[in-house]
Amino acid sequence: MGNTKKTSNNKNNTNNTNDNAALNVGFLHPDLGIGGAERLVVDAALGLKEKGHNVCIYTSHHDRDHCFQETRDGTLRVEVNGDFLPRHLFHRLHVVFAILRNIWAAIMMVFKESFDVIIVDQISATIPLLKILTLGRTKIVFYCHYPDKLLTQRNSFLKKLYRLPIDWIEGFTTGCADVIVVNSKYTRSVFEEAFPNIRKKTPAVLYPSLNFAKYDAPVRDISNKELGIPNNSIVLLSINRFERKKNINLALETLHRLLSLVDSSISKRLHLVIAGGYDHIVKENVDHLAELQNRANELGMGRGKVIDGRSGNEVKEKSGDGRVTFVLSFTEEQRAVLLKKCSCMLYTPSNEHFGIGPLEGMYASRPVIAVDSGGPRETVLDGETGFLRDSDPEEWANAIKQLLSDEEFVKRMGREGRLWVKK
Fold this sequence. Notes:
15 strands, seven-stranded parallel sheet, alpha/beta, 37% helix, single chain
């Protein structure tokens, strides 16, 4: 994109670089919470900043108690605009209000400062507006995690009617980007089917990666008690946001089936930890946690302890007991310790667009069991760094049983997984 003059708007960003080499790069992300998409944005911003560029993330929501550390400790500059607008109308029209909030953030972004490149993700509706407001001088990159039109059900005529203009807007505005990037070959194939009219811009594949320095950093040894895990447990770990599409029930059903497949000396030690992004203002997060607890209880495994990751305290009003622990919005330190304590990672979503979880598990030298579809087919080497299986608790339970019976095999998988991620 050539050499660019550093604008005066970014006085808060300090970089030891030559002005002629530094680009002003803005990220526009709707909700800067905790999740795979947010981790990608944060790591991309960190990487660009380390290269000497001036970076700022604009968002319509940033809860300092529910975000990645780099976005609240001053490492990255974050500007919040649009949070005064509602998220929904009586739990309806979520998409409409998400677009409106994002549009407001985009307007403020352009009026507050100048950018050479703006990287937009999740919501494409702002792209034409950004191009108009910047008079076409700013290059717009759209990072497509997955087409939004494919992330919703259309179970009624009204829902189909509601989605009609939204889907059209997504297709039209996505095509207005100067560059389109996707997170996997799988997502690219889905993108091309979903947007057949965007033929002139074949999306490039840019895999998310890990910030190895963060994962290699020393952490304090958090006790099992702090994490709600019984001592001497064999820990199975699931890391996913508390959303229904993540199919976390598969982990519960797998543990239930596994208990009947292994000796009592093993079964009495088995414990499942379900950890992930959780926001109390997101109704689905709240409802799905309750659903998972109820299902665990129905399976005879108890309602499980609930740990607030940020405070490290047990959430007494939600907690029970049993073979499952729910860790809500874990910290990076807790994530590192959980990966160290677990015997394997269970990655449960079907047709996941990419999935950063398997990379985290493999880099921690832990075998990963994932559904044989979507992005994990590009990250997990079946039989070498983990197992790819159908979304069937019986198959998953047998895979875990195999791991539990062969310690050397597990170690070899762990070594291969870490080397594979480093490549």
